[in-house]
Amino acid sequence: MPQGQPTTVPDDGLTTRQRRTQPVLAVHTGPGKGKSTAAFGLALRAWNQGWPIGVFQFVKSAKWKVGEEHALRVLGASGEGGSVAWHKMGEGWSWVQRSIENSEDAAREGWEQVKRDLAAETYRLYVLDEFTYPLHWGWIDTDEVLAVLKDRPGSQHVVITGRNAPAALVDAADLVTEMTKVKHPMDAGRKGQRGIEW
Amino acid sequence: MPQGQPTTVPDDGLTTRQRRTQPVLAVHTGPGKGKSTAAFGLALRAWNQGWPIGVFQFVKSAKWKVGEEHALRVLGASGEGGSVAWHKMGEGWSWVQRSIENSEDAAREGWEQVKRDLAAETYRLYVLDEFTYPLHWGWIDTDEVLAVLKDRPGSQHVVITGRNAPAALVDAADLVTEMTKVKHPMDAGRKGQRGIEW
């Protein structure tokens, strides 16, 4: 239940209110489904709070998450909650004018923009979707990412999704959920289907 | 990746297309966060397909999921995707006129309506949020639920969330994800906060 009582009260000199508004770094990892889906579900809560939301899709193909993107764009434009900016590596980041063929370079360009936005406090919630992969593959330096996140100003929440989250990222995160695959239709020979998988 | 290849091709006499449009029973269980959140993320995809969505919140308090509810209501009313009907046990199911003090009776009333809607094919996606609890507690008979779900007409997808999913439900489901808690801010004495927890 969301409003349970903490099991320990830390001796950190902070009030409950101060602890409550600390920026959260969340990681959704593991081989199961629901990592990104839960991050976009979290974005619904942020939107409801009126927070500006920045989504950075660190995937080669821009085909995925069309449903989530459409929904969040409609929400962002509804005028009832927060704004939504949706950035896709697969289509070429909108702020990069030249074409980047190399996924490694493209991922780095994405991270550079995230850094600029964190410094400028552009968003209140960042969804760094599939961001664990460029970290896992060593394209982006995990230590640098953690240093930047540690020093981010204000109350900016960050959710990072993807398999194989580096151990240092898991250590640094405030909230880590591992999605474990118990059973999947593909095991029974069923392909992914519209509305369920994308 | 969503469009991976199945590892086996079953000898069930169905075409890939037939298998693709088979109704899915998904279960999000386990002690970690993201069970409901991922279900509501899934609802974004269903909405994008233009599917009518029925949410049944099987919880005593209606306070939770305000963000998701607001977002899905705005989406449902946007005219761009599917419709959204949101039913809350905590406020008293809208179709029940009398007051039900007893949670067990209230949960059963919820299930009776789900049965009627499945028979009428009212929705294309059903989110039965926290529905594992009345099953786990024996308030609603799991075997009956499984029999009704097995025989549901058409292509109606059902997502059931909550801890302690009965083994028979896990066996019957097409897709089961277990959310494992790796780390949570409450462990460090931080209370839940707005926009993150609700």
TrEMBL record, chains A, B:
Protein origin, superkingdom: Bacteria
Recorded GO MF terms: corrinoid adenosyltransferase activity
E.C. number(s) listed in UniProt: 2.5.1.17
Pfam families to which the protein is assigned, alphabetical: CobA_CobO_BtuR
Spans annotated as Disordered: 1-21
Keyword Transferase: yes
Coiled-coil stretches noted in the UniProt entry, renumbered to this chain: none
Transferase among keywords: yes
Keyword annotations of the record: Transferase
NCBIfam families per the UniProt record, alphabetical: cobA, PRK05986.1
Record protein name field: Cob(I)yrinic acid a,c-diamide adenosyltransferase
